[in-house]
Design goal:
about 190 residues; mainly alpha; 11 helices; about 65% helix
Length: about 190
């Protein structure tokens, strides 16, 4: 970078990559990744190839962080920031609907746990839990067949190894375990 450009950057608010990352509670590697993705590039470089970020990049990173906190994908954020005619309300509406679905799943899981806590007699039976007992507990908690299937899909996506251990604990055959686990990959698989 020419000395004149460096002098101009010094007059403005400037940050090294580490200082800018620190201001936002991010790692240096996150900013390097954002640069590689074309999301946030430095304003220039000082001697020794130090990346320098100015006020524009600071404000852009504020917006990136705001959208990330809302759960917007980096690809969508880049589109919002770089393409002036992007309808960001459509992107935000889509994320809002995704959040609604996630909240419904969490509420369903919360209801199941609350019902299970109320039905502790079923859980404290001395015999070992099996598929039939577990299904009857879920049905008594008000969960439909589709709800149980969705419960398994969520469990598989969130914690596949623990899901398998749980299914083995219920004494389900290996073939049926593979079928249940496949629901998360292809929900159209027949139960």
């Amino acid at each position: 970078m020419a000395n004149k450009e460096t002098a101009t950057l010094k007059k403005e608010m400037t940050f090294t990559i580490s200082k800018l990352a620190g201001k936002f509670g991010l790692s240096r590697s996150t900013l390097l990744y954002y640069d590689a993705q074309g999301l946030l590039s430095p304003a220039g470089h000082q001697q020794g190839e130090y990346r320098i970020y100015g006020e524009y990049e600071f404000k852009r990173l504020e917006r990136i962080c705001m959208y990330r906190d809302a759960g917007i994908s980096l690809k969508a954020i880049k589109k919002i920031l770089d393409i002036p005619d992007t309808d960001f309300t459509e992107i935000l509406s889509k994320r809002f609907e995704e959040l609604n679905k996630e909240m419904r799943k969490l509420q369903d899981q919360q209801k199941i746990i609350a019902d299970l806590l109320q039905n502790q007699k079923l859980l404290k039976k001395p015999k070992k839990m099996n598929k039939q007992m577990w299904s009857s507990i879920l049905k008594a908690s008000g969960l439909s067949e589709e709800g149980m299937r969705n419960w398994h899909i969520t469990f598989e996506k969130e914690a596949p190894e623990q899901h398998k251990v749980f299914l083995q604990y219920l004494q389900i055959s290996d073939d049926e375990i593979e079928l249940i686990k496949s629901w998360a990959v292809d929900p159209s698989t027949n139960p």
